[in-house]
Amino acid sequence: MKIYRSLSELPADLGPVVATIGNFDGVHRGHRWVIDQVNARARTLCLPSLLITFDPHPVRVLRPDAPHSLITPLEQKLALLGETGIDAALILPFTPELSRLTARQFAEILANDIHVREVHEGENFRFGHKAEAGMEGLEQLGHELGFTAQTYSPHILRAAPVSSSRIRNLIAAGALHHARALTGRPFAIQSTPASGRGYGTRYTVPTINLAPYPELLPAKGVYVTTLKVGTGPHAETFNAVTNIGDRPTFGADSFAVESHLLNFHAVDLNEQTPLELTFLQRLRPEIRWPNPEALRTQIGLDVKKAQRYFALCTTLTKEKAPAT
Ligand SMILES: Cc1cc2nc3c(=O)[nH]c(=O)nc-3n(C[C@H](O)[C@H](O)[C@H](O)COP(=O)(O)O)c2cc1C
Ligand SMILES: Nc1ncnc2c1ncn2[C@@H]1O[C@H](COP(=O)(O)OP(=O)(O)OP(=O)(O)O)[C@@H](O)[C@H]1O
């Protein structure tokens, strides 16, 4: 997938293109449904497929005071979009000026600068200053400016339309299984290591702490996870149990995300080592234990549950594998 980070980066000879526009946070099943249609049309017409997205997320510019955390920060989103078969992604810097473009001005950019032949969107798509226009407006403007607009009814899963906001709420509530059904993959975050206070090694179990993470995290609590350390051919993935929370057993609140590796062996870690933490199952809420011994005993039980989870996964994977 080619990535263009502004209009001026688009090669002059790219168009005409079959395009879709949106935030695509979480790259969920509704998004992938639309992207598949775009790719199929592009192949039929022998044109490149192009996904147009925005950075930062428009909400951050339009409502800077409203808390809004991303399911997939930009680079993670681009990596996932790269797996969809889309030929190119154009990231439009979402500025106050862009937010003030009228629907017509935006459609003119689509026609004259991006050379769209077709634009494919879900029926809830809105664009232009104060979200003034929807798919009907896009169709009319396209008719004038020389492109067509294709509208899709919402992709429904578990009795409601799939949307980034729905998935965000599920993850924030710790409902990881439900969120996974809507995205088609477990929720994962990318970070780097940070130093802990040393309490774990002294009183409970050793952990790898993650650097403060500014985007979406699951609800506070204890989870079965995997932790991938490093990238590329030298990356290693460990089974783990992870606590997200304030660690109230040790006094004053001190928020952290920290993982205890089950199949630990020494790895070379520094502050830049890429980490990917994947959340598989929620085990329990975080609790203020009367003393570190009680917490250590509970973590022992958490580890046993996680081991059972991984053992069951291995058995199921083996059962699913074709006979050799
Ligand atoms: C699997 C797991 C479960 C945990 N559960 C709790 C908990 O219920 N309550 C709590 O106060 N801390 C909990 N913790 C956090 C420990 O208190 C934490 O590991 C300890 O404070 C070490 O901090 P440090 O890494 O800064 O040294 C948990 C940690 C792990 C790895
Ligand atoms: N469930 C769905 N079915 C069909 N199309 C969808 C679905 N969800 C999103 N789309 C379409 O995918 C494109 C990108 O969507 P976008 O990420 O902007 O919205 P969203 O997933 O609904 O997020 P939010 O909940 O933040 O509004 C748009 O054309 C949108 O209409």
UniProtKB/TrEMBL annotation:
- GO BP, sorted A to Z: FAD biosynthetic process; FMN biosynthetic process; riboflavin biosynthetic process
Keywords attached to this Swiss-Prot or TrEMBL record, sorted alphabetically, are:
ATP-binding, FAD, Flavoprotein, FMN, Kinase, Multifunctional enzyme, Nucleotide-binding, Nucleotidyltransferase, Transferase
Where the record annotates domain Riboflavin kinase, the positions are 182-311
Q: Which reaction does it catalyse?
A: riboflavin + ATP = FMN + ADP + H(+); FMN + ATP + H(+) = FAD + diphosphate
* Recorded metabolic or biological pathway in which this protein acts: Cofactor biosynthesis; FMN biosynthesis; FMN from riboflavin (ATP route): step 1/1; Cofactor biosynthesis; FAD biosynthesis; FAD from FMN: step 1/1
**Class of enzymatic activity (EC top level):** transferase
Q: Which Pfam families match?
A: FAD_syn, Flavokinase
Q: Its Enzyme Commission number?
A: 2.7.1.26, 2.7.7.2
Superkingdom of the source?
A: Bacteria
Q: What does this protein do?
A: Catalyzes the phosphorylation of riboflavin to FMN followed by the adenylation of FMN to FAD.
What name does the UniProt record give this protein?
Riboflavin biosynthesis protein
